[in-house]
Amino acid sequence: SVAWDWRPETLQQGMLDARKALEHDPNYAPAHGWLACILAWRAACGWTVNVELDRAEAIREADDAVRLGFNNPEALMPALTAYWAAGTPERAVAVFERLVARQPDIFLTMPFGMVIVGTAYARAGRTAEGLALIRQYETAFPNEEWGAV
After folding, report:
1. To the nearest 10°, the Cα dihedral for 104, 28, 63, 114?
2. Cα dist from 30 to 1, 45, 116, 128, whole Å
């Protein structure tokens, strides 16, 4: 939960917590996903000593989250966010498209992931598809806690 606070000090704690979880279970996909998300967000905000190093680690962790938790939205949503924030929106789109082909309703448990992927589509130059996905989210989840985007 500290990762959602989005302040440097809480993200630091979230990063430590994710690393500790991975010490206990290196195959725990959500920890890989959240570590990726935190690293990418810190790099995007400049809250790190080495932006490129954190960005590269974020992508590696997101790759692990996708590999280990391909059917787990609690691992995939932060991994997709990491790809987007780390400047690789094409990877977020590719993972999303493979995922939806296998499990079309995967984001019912993490609906805001549709917005993340929608912005990834837009950043990858596929603006119409991205806006369509964001509108689908707004229509399907009008009362979702994140509200209209």
Report:
1. 30
2. 12, 22, 17, 30
